[in-house]
Amino acid sequence: MIKKLVFIFALLTSVFTVYTATFGQFTPVIQRGIFISLILVLTFLLYPTSKKNKWLRIIDIVAIIGVISSAIYLYLYYPTIESRIGYINYADTIFGLIFVVILLEACRRVTGWALTIIALVFLAYGLFGFLVPGFFGHEGYQFSRLMTTMFLTTEGIFGSALGAAATFVAMFIIFGTFLEKGGAGQVFIDLAMAIGGRRRGGPAKVAIFASALMGSVNGSPVANVTTTGVFTIPLMKKVGYKKEVAGAVEAVASTGGSILPPVMGAGAFIMAEMAGLPYSAIVTAAAIPALLYYLSLYFVVDFEAAKNNLKGLSKEETPSLEETLKKGILLLLPLFILVIFLVFVKVSVTRAALYSILAVIIVSFFTKDKKIGFKNLIDILVTSAKSMIVVSVACGTAGIVVGIITLSGLGLKLSGLLLAIGEDSLFLTLLLTMVGAVIIGMGLPPTPAYIVFSVLATPALVQLGVPLLAAHLFVFYFSCFAPITPPVALAAFTAAGIADSKPFKTGWISFIFALPAFIIPFMFIYGPELMFEGKWFGIIFATLTASIGVIAFGAAVTGWFRKDLKIYERILFLIGGGTLIIPGLYTDIIGVVLLGVSLLSINLRKSSVSQIEIK
Question: Is the pLDDT of residue 368 over 80?
Answer without folding.
Answer: no
